[in-house]
Specification:
The structure is a homodimer.
Chain A: H1 4-20, E1 28-34, H2 38-50, E2 55-61, H3 63-72, H4 83-90, E3 96-101, H5 114-119, H6 123-135, E4 139-144, H7 148-155, H8 160-170, H9 178-199, E5 203-208, E6 211-216, E7 224-225, E8 228-229, E9 235-236, E10 245-247, E11 254-259, E12 264-266, E13 269-271, E14 275-279, E15 282-287, H10 292-300, E16 308-313, H11 319-322, H12 330-333, E17 339-343, E18 370-374, E19 381-385, E20 391-396, E21 399-400
Parallel strand pairs in A: 1-2, 1-3, 3-4
Antiparallel strand pairs in A: 5-6, 5-19, 6-11, 7-10, 8-9, 10-16, 11-14, 12-13, 14-15, 16-17, 17-18, 19-20, 20-21
Helix pairs in contact in A: 1-2, 4-6
């Protein structure tokens, strides 16, 4: 007998398979998830096979195993990518994938050396994932699994039911017809992206408390929203929820400083009060109330990590923003408000042949890092700057200004 | 602060790393475990790094994912071995591995078609594991993780503490000096194996209720106990607990029938009342009160599965037997009493160059199956038959008869 909870989980998994990854019959489905997310993984597996998956391939990850490595393992083990794991990532080409979020212990590694935590990145695996992104080879999606530890972090009490309500609200699972709700939502976000693309701004300027930053835009890049399409023509929604319109900027042109407006759960620690300063496109200074070393370790692990890869705009109409919650989970928090990301570009935003992307100056196409952090809120003013130097308001007090 | 439970788990993991796998500094440690075994996996990871592991590589398995595949997946997915998984198994050569037992739901798949369950074996992966066994390439060990579901199956109540007591008793973890207790225990079992090797019996005869079976022995095979040694000289204990002396028989010479005396947890179902009949070494008939089809499916998946690979003798002095429990877990139940296995030979028992094993007639060296089932108990009479046809009692009423 299915309980009410089971039914919600099944519906959530079906929505993710249909609208999120948009799994096609005959594809393999690769699921990579935290061990504690097993109930969601099983539901996704069932939904995947029901949708015609040839094989559902599950890999569970465990931050406690990583913690043991960082505490007790040799230096060689830091950032090590086993060959078999790379082989698994290679096999994803042409197939569908899910990753899950909702860390039951987002600050498990807070007591460790931040530089070490930041450096411990499986770049061998990430490079393969980047290749897939660049080649539009995978229909992928990320979604969260509500659990006690995560609820504790969000609410200060392990109220999973309350967290499920928030997740169902943000992912439109609580709508009478979630698939239709997503169709409408995607259309609305795409219209907003189109209104930005018509203007062809030369740059975006951010101003607010602790923030005065101008970032150049690329002629070759569009603003996108909600959906990507694989090289083989499969349209999919890589984030559930998604409330943003986004582009990849000219990574050579960022001047000024910007201060985060929400905590950032990053690699097992939570970075608080992050402020970064840019010169000639590059982050030259990192400050934070907590966790600056994790960011510094991450930036140091990769030559191009300190350059911008993404600008994303979110207004106060966001369902995630409407909850008023801090989720300590980037998939959610980045969809509550404006954010930017240092590291790897969103290469899908570049028009034309994917193979030519890495040849375009100003596209940050060679970093294994992509870290979003939240910079928006009612006090942030976002302007589009025209080539002539005029400033056009885009966001004021969290309200979208363009028609 | 470590709780008492944590301390026991840490000690258990240390014992497994030192005595079980006998991990050597610089080796990789591969752990393959059910998701629900995460606490043990984490303890093994810590113990592994503390003992000098270069990298601890964890893979969690999930029978619910397998169940979804068998219920909803295509025929192609049955028995499929992903290439990356094979790559992981190849990487184990020269390294240490753990597998865990203690299935929280040993009859999860009982409602499915038994033939399908029995056929769903990752032979691509198993063939690589067999190659490692044949080449003595891996120091491996198996150990159980007490959990609620398993306790429920054993006691009819989820009394994990009671199960931990049984596990600590059987693995000698409750001894004042467990490492010394293992040293003594290994010596005693080896002496028993030596007493059998001196006699060089030509065959073993089993008689009891529902049992009358004679199995030939091989000139080239020894009886072994407790310890194996890798080609590189690492002595390790592949099973914790272990109470058996065992050999690999002449797979051409088995005549008669034998009836199991304990339930057999097999591939997600529990086989009850198994009786198998042999002719010219081969199983020609399979009967059971429940689960015969799982055995039949398994035997059908492999040309050599229906021939014997192991004979093992256990007397009433076994710690596992002393508990009086049925564990529904072969690692435990096979160490309570005499057992035999159909499928892959225990190639370690063959004297001389490992490379020559597959050339010896009568060694069942080419099956991907190895399934132990329990046949012992006070009513089983085990005799050694000499080349002259004399019968020498080995076990009577669970008491060892040889000096």
């Amino acid at each position: 007998m299915a309980t009410q909870l089971d039914e919600r989980l099944e519906k959530y998994a079906e929505l993710a398979v249909k609208v999120g990854a948009n799994l096609q019959p005959g594809q393999d489905l690769f699921i990579t998830a935290i061990v504690l997310h097993a109930p969601l993984v099983r539901a996704l597996t069932r939904a995947g096979y029901a949708a015609g998956a040839r094989y559902v391939d599950v890999l569970y990850t465990d931050q406690h195993v990583r913690k043991a490595k960082l505490e007790l393992g040799p230096e060689d083990a830091v950032g090590y990518s086993p060959e078999w794991l790379k082989e698994r990532w290679r096999a994803m080409a042409g197939n569908a994938t899910f990753g899950t979020t909702g860390d039951p212990e987002p600050d498990l590694l807070a007591g460790l050396d931040g530089q070490l935590v930041g450096r411990d990145r499986m770049t061998g695996v990430i490079e393969i994932a980047m290749k897939h992104y660049s080649e539009h080879a995978v229909n992928w999606s990320g979604l969260a699994y509500p659990n006690e530890g995560w609820a504790m972090k969000v609410f200060g009490e392990p109220n999973v039911e309350k967290l499920w309500d928030a997740v169902a609200f943000c992912t439109r699972l609580n709508e009478p017809d979630p698939v239709q709700a997503w169709t409408d939502h995607i259309a609305k976000l795409k219209a907003r992206a189109a209104s930005l693309n018509e203007r062809r701004f030369d740059a975006i300027r951010y101003r607010g408390p602790g923030t005065d930053l101008t970032v150049g835009l690329l002629d070759q890049a569009d603003w996108l929203a909600a959906e990507f399409t694989t090289a083989s023509g499969i349209a999919y929604v890589p984030n559930m929820p998604t409330e943003e319109v986004f582009t990849t900027p000219d990574c050579r042109r960022a001047e000024g400083y910007i201060t985060s407006t929400k905590p950032l759960a990053l690699m097992g620690d939570v970075v608080e009060g992050l402020k970064v300063t840019f010169k000639d496109g590059k982050i030259v200074e990192v400050d934070a109330k907590h966790g600056a070393d994790v960011v510094r370790g991450q930036l140091a692990s990769d030559e191009r990590a300190a350059y911008l890869g993404e600008l994303a705009l979110v207004d106060g109409g966001s369902k995630v923003g409407q909850t008023g919650l801090t989720f300590f989970d980037t998939l959610y928090d980045e969809n509550a408000t404006c954010h930017i990301a240092y590291g790897f570009a969103i290469v899908e935003c570049i028009r034309g042949d994917p193979a030519s992307v890495s040849k375009i100056d100003g596209v940050n196409a060679n970093s294994t890092v992509h870290t979003d952090f939240m910079v928006g809120g009612p006090q942030l003013e976002v302007d589009g700057l025209t080539a002539d130097g005029d400033a056009v308001p885009i966001l004021r007090e969290d309200v979208w200004q363009l028609s």
